[in-house]
Amino acid sequence: MDAIRTEVMRNRFAALVEEASIILYKTAHTTFIKQTQDYQCAMCTVEGEVFAYPRSNGVATLVGLSLKPAIDRIGVENIHPGDVIITNDPFSTEGMCTHTPDIFTLRPIFHEGELLCFSWAFAHVSDVGGAVPSSISPSFTEIFQEGLRMRPVKLFREGELNEQLKDIISDNCRIPSETWGDIIAMCSALSSMDRRIIELVERYSVDDLTAGIREVLAYGEAKAREVISDLPDGSWSFSDYIEVVAGQPLLLRCTMTVTGSDVLLDFTGSSPQVQAACNFVTGAAPHPALVRCFVAYLLSSSPEMPMNGGIVRPIRTRAPKGVIMNAEFPAASGNRAASYTRIYDLVLGCLNQAIPEALAGGGGSQAAIIAASVTDPLTRKPRVSVIQPLIGGSGGRRSMDGIDAIDTPFGFLRSAPTESVEHEMPFLVRRFGLVTDSFGAGRYRGGAALEIELENRSHEATFSVRGCDRFTFQPWGVAGGAAGHCGGGWKNGEPVSMIELQKLGRGDRLHLRSPSGGGFGDPLERDPEAVLLDVRDGLLSEARALVDYGVVIRDGALDLQASGAARAEAKARTEPQDGLFNVGAQRRAYETDWPEPSTVALSIGLLEAPSGLRSAVKTWVTERQPKGADPETVNALLKEGLAQIL
What we know:
Blueprint: H1 3-27, H2 31-34, E1 39-44, E2 50-52, H3 68-74, E3 84-87, E4 102-111, E5 114-124, E6 153-157, E7 160-161, H4 163-171, H5 176-203, H6 206-229, E8 234-242, E9 250-259, E10 262-266, H7 288-301, E11 315-318, H8 337-354, E12 367-375, E13 382-391, H9 418-424, E14 427-434, E15 450-456, E16 460-466, E17 477-478, E18 488-491, E19 494-495, E20 502-505, E21 509-513, H10 528-536, H11 542-549, E22 552-554, E23 557-559, H12 560-573, E24 581-582, H13 585-593, H14 596-606, H15 614-624, H16 631-645
């Protein structure tokens, strides 16, 4: 490896993708890109491995994405200068696209007839048709409901626009001009990367470029292996639940195994895919949705590590066909973000066990995306827009508090300015802010919850809220920290289900609250001055300061003497925590009736049934499963149920 060339090319690559990312951001048409920033650009090798990825804007979590399935669908031999490939199909791309609103584009970069690499861009467009505005509903049961689906196909052929394909896209979405505007913004970013790569070749050479690509990827791999080598060898498992199917918590499970500088993340034991939109496809490669927490750990441990696909080379994943995180056709996947966040928590739970003193508590763990549709009173055409991402606070960390209203898996999503929301859609934002007394207590507290209240000023509006979770099971605390708080939703003061579409008449109000982060460490060890600061900031009441932290604050002033006595009394009556994690009372009660090992046995056994009958077999077993049943009992019921139904 030529160290000077590696560093020069690394910085050149970083600069050109950052520039392209800004171009896409500045030229996009819809709120979810130009405000919330659900988009990204990158450069990848001829084989589809990302070698340059931005840090400053857009989605930060797709650095290890493999673009090979889309390239192979077309065939390198069929790709020519000026082509642009477009797709949004999860199945034909083996999970490269994760749901239909994420439109991916690829442009080959040639020099004197030689294919050098590809530029890549994606954008979450606000509508691609389907049964509801925004194309996503948590209750969808199959991908056919989620709008137009395109296998990899050429949008441009040697520079010529495929007008028929453009018409198909425009004819199958509610906001064709806005969607097409976002696609052209992606194409502009692709062109920018093409131009900059050619400039590099002309300044240096093709050999220097290709060598630089190999070397920056190898450098990323080497830095990742350095971090992994510092972890102890061993295996650790952690489980958690998603609640996106009404009345049916779904178990997700991960076992992390470290061997030298290699890592395996095994999701065997997770629930089979369901007739709801929380499934997604990952294929055989280490998919970003499965490794994002571990990648975040790598980048945090070694900030100088380059952002490229080399850092995921030491990571392998295993997700059996048919489980939620590796679903089979025709599974719905629009609401897959709910599963993403829980998978992040699974890997974090494993890392907490592998690393002395642990890392962090569980986060608010949702990215509830509020989308709405109204009829424009002037044009009579539909207006579809993402209103706001509603994200719970992150978990308390080993040396600092969690972040209010931002959880690590979705830290890249920006809040849209209230003025922009009210300008683009006929809604009045009655409240958008942090929630007092909402975080999990700890030596380092969790991040506070976020809430929003919207009033509809139009004749009628349709709202969908996807990504909601943690309405029953709390985000967990760690190392003595308390569990966080659950989220909720209300329409005109009455509780509503976040799984269903919400219709609002003129004057109706929708109020949503995110979960909050779990705490880290014993709350009675929190610095009293930090407790006082939270009270003065309006994030903590004086009453909760006493109950949660044993800190006495009267009229905004700290009473240290009274606090010492209160803490001593609290310590005397506090029972030691059982284990590293505080998963909350609701989960403990649930697992008394439905023990985790038995649920794992049921999940594994169901994969033996034909995919179309798994739901029926599961219902048959759970209706007969006694509370507290052990895995042997569950396996016997599974055998009987399979015989009965088959």
